[in-house]
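Posted in: Structural Biology > Protein-Ligand Complexes

Title: Requesting predicted complex, nicotinamide-adenine-dinucleotide in pocket

I'd be grateful if someone could produce the 3D structure tokens for the following input. Sequence and ligand are given below.
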Amino acid sequence: MSETTKEVHQIGFVGLGNMGWPMAANLAAADYRLWVRDADVATTERFCDEYGGAQIASVASDFSSVDVVILMLPNGSIVREVLVGSSGLAGELKPGTVVVDMSSSEATGTAALGQELADLGLIFVDAPVSGGVPRARSGELAVMTGGDAETLQWLASVFATMSSSVVNCGPLGAGHAMKSLNNYVSAAGLVAACEALRIGQAFGIQGETVIQVLNSSTGRNNSTENKLGQHVLNDSFASGFSLSLMCKDLETAIGLADHLRVTLPLGHDLLSIWRRGEAELGPGVDHTAIARLIDSTPPEQ
Ligand code: NAD
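-- Reply #1 --
Done. Output follows.
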């Protein structure tokens, strides 16, 4: 990072979905000058109507004045396409622009893309997030970063508008590796919690009681605290995180394990449960609906 004293004034933000919208909204509220883009033009227009200072970046050259570009997109392939694809942004950015991938992308792809962007004079860091839509709205996400430490330090005030915790995990891609591992643990915790809920109910224990005991005992996890009561017990299934995104994160974690030759007693079985959920319930359905898979499995005769 050459100009460490230079402040961030203008930010380009790509991907105004469930997460990107509230994250960009917090940046707008912190008075950064924003250039926004989403594949859904109506969404981009709605954002700019709501946050008066934000401007639509309809062509790649609209990003030419920004200091930082943040991407909050479904996966690393889309991030790559948006940056260095046929009409990619990267060629329009001024040298030294910092590109921040806050999506949950694949660590190995991130490292390769970082080299390509460095060849164009750009600085690439990864900073995926955890905490879901509620914490994106409240600006209390957990951010896990990878890449040049000085650049990440320079971004601290930008991250502070969106998050309550930033952990630097290591070199470029380390944040993305940690994000997939976090969601691996989260996916296992949710399936186990839903199974326990359904078994308890089948035994005749009230669902609320199952949740109360888990949350005051050693079975407590994020799913027992924030998903079972809020999204599963009442069948609302509306956390804002889709089944397809959870499958993608698990595939990323298991791909990383395979790449590193770490064998997993649980991982492949866990992934097959989530893939079955995606196939039977639909990719866009909320990930908490995985509980319905447990309901729909007929008892063994
Ligand atoms: P989403 O599907 O709600 O939003 C993605 C947005 O990207 C959409 O608005 C879509 O129109 C836009 N988009 C897709 N392709 C594009 C392109 N080529 N150019 C511009 N815009 C494009 O997804 P989300 O839930 O906001 O998740 C975004 C990322 O954050 C994913 O990587 C996800 O794994 C991760 N994540 C999600 C959550 C959550 O709770 N939803 C939590 C943590 C991390």
